[in-house]
Amino acid sequence: MSILLLFLVITVYLLTRTINIRSAVMIFWLQSFIIACFCLFAGWENKESHIFIAALLTLIVKAYWIPRIMLRVTGRIKMKEDNTALGANCTSLAFGGCLVLSYAAVGRFLPNILNSDALAVSLALFLMGMTFIIIRRQALMQIIGLMTMENGLYLLGLSVTKGMPVIIEFGILLDVLFVAVILGFLTKKIRLSFATTDVGELTGLKE
Amino acid sequence: MNLLYIMLGTLLIVAGYSAFELNERRLHAVNYCAAVVTGGCSALIAYYVSENKIVSGQFFCIDAISAILLLAIGILSLSCVIVSAEHLKRDDLMARKKGQYYFLLQLFILSMILVVTLNNAGLVWVAIEATTVVSTLLIAFNLTRQSLEAAWKYVIICTIGICFALLGTILLYYLQVNACGTEAASLNWQSLHDSARVYEPNLSLLAFLFILIGYGTKAGFAPMHTWLPDAYSQSPAPISALLSGGLISAAIYALIRNVIIFKLILHPLVWQGLLIFFALFSIIIVIPFVYKQNDLKRLLAYSSIENIGIITLGLAGNCYLAAYGLLFHIFNHALNKTLLFYLTGEIIHVFRTKQITRVTMLFTKSPKLGWLMFFAVASLAGLPPFAVFFSKLYIMFGLMAGGHWLVATIALAAIAVIFILMLKAVMNLCCGGQKGEKMYAQPSKVVISVSAIMLLLLLVMGLALPNPLQRLLHNAALIISN
């Protein structure tokens, strides 16, 4: 379990270093795959069948469909680099901050919980996804940030409560899939009318 | 219960049918029928619930609070489909994608109905996220540069917000599991309410904070409101109407349900303080934007933020009168804002602009549109005898009765300023002096009559509230304030 968590932290770190969108998608794929493995382990340890179903769904939706959609969208985009002024270094710094913050938060609010490591890592994933959206300006990078947030939440649910009830879990995954599809669609349309996927360029509507 | 299933089934079937139907007349006819079924069923369910009954099934539960919201969404969706048909007939850009439009519209209505009827905190989250997904496509429907930008901001900000709500809901589930074991924990509103008193307060505060920020983003609380004016101003008029009337009410509904649970655990000062902070911030921050606003739709969007603030104040009031006013205000605001967006759609159609300074002399150019617009804005701003005045009054009295004198005074002052600014804007529209745009077309009679009926409804509700609705509001206020 701890090794998987360690790998998760490493994937997030790698995500902060990459500026190439295609490799970012691959790292996201790896991250979702690790989460699905984590889910399988949790199911095996607790001998609960519904966690296996959740693991399978995660595998299909997050480790297959969503990366595939994103790869298809990236395939059509010429500019594949995220040349933000606040680039990799800034994101990495934020990553360190998020990790410390989430360990501190878990220590403060939930001192006696069993899976404190998993909880801290999931919170770090959540916060990191959010800072990723704030710092990066490429549409696809923002989508990956959003999906990282979702992964963090999924891990959180898994580690503190052994998974939500199956129907809720299923609903959440379905929503995530649709959000990914729609964001991919919007990215495509934004590229068509703005000739870029840098959403920092979207400044038409202001007071 | 059967009525609910009929309604949901009809919406789903008609949505699927619309995606494939090519014949224009059949498409409109089927969607009219679906709208009538939705409106009729929601009215019947609301009437049934008003006689002290509760509709409940495995996944659904409709008590008085849900029934009021359901009734509002039912009326809204009926009027919205009628108005949409007019827009589809005359707008070439939209007319090419009629099928898609109806498909998304019916799914949007369906997801909002699910939000207010599901009985489970987790599933309500799923339904709220579904509204985001569907409405994003509706906001971006015209695929112009601005509407794409608005849709992108909307979906990113709302999804981040809603992720916070999920975080809070997971923590809530954890609290419930700790309190009564994995088997009994189900996130049902009722079971959460029953077991709430033994939850751990520290973690509950964290969960409440996340849920408040999450659903608050979706409702348009002030620091997280930036998506709202963009989304409202860029979507087609019937969609803006549904977003401001229905979606906001659905998000507030989710918040109300959570507050009912958390107020059993948290200290009143904490949760009331948080709500009052967001509410006052939302009301006050609107003033400068309303003052210098020249875009009619954005003006209405900022007014929505103000009204969300007022509604939240009612929630923070924590007494019977405030709760009564809160639900009444959600209902009134939904009707009033919707009809205003319909009228705005007509103004944009007639004058081909939405800039307030370029539309002038509406009273003489098109008296019907002018007078309706005037009274609708006056009603929204809080002119008596319209119902909005009374609901605002109840909320303020409720706050004062609860001892929040200062809060009520600040809010009243801000509301008065906004009242004047809104009237100034509409007076400029209706009898402003300079030479404005000429009329390019006549306003649609259908839209005018739909809006007139809704305005009349508001007037009637202000003068004499129908008995069943009063019973519903009474029961719902009891649920919230106890």
Structure notes:
The complex is a heterodimer of chains A (207) and B (482). Chain A is built from seven helices and no strands. Chain A has 207 residues and is mainly alpha-helical. The mean pLDDT of chain A is 84. Chain B is mostly helical and 482 residues long. Chain B has helices at 2-20, 24-50, 64-90, 92-95, 98-117, 121-139, 145-184, 189-195, 201-219, 227-234, 237-262, 268-291, 296-317, 320-351, 362-365, 367-381, 387-401, 405-431, 445-463, 467-481, and strands at 55-56, 61-62. The chains are: A mainly alpha (207), B mainly alpha (482).
The percentage of residues in β strands of chain B lies in: under 5%
> What is the average of the pLDDT values of chain B?
92
- Give the CA-based shape of chain A: globular
Number of helices of chain A: 7
Sequence of strands across the biggest β-sheet of chain B: 1-2
For the secondary structure, the number of strands of chain A is 0
Instruction: Name the helix and strand elements of chain B from N-terminus to C-terminus, one letter apiece.
Output: HHEEHHHHHHHHHHHHHHHHHH
What distance lies between the first and last C-alpha atoms of chain B, to the nearest angstrom?
26 Å
Helix content of chain B: over 70%
Summarize the structure.
The complex is a heterodimer of chains A (207) and B (482). Chain A has 207 residues and is mostly helical.
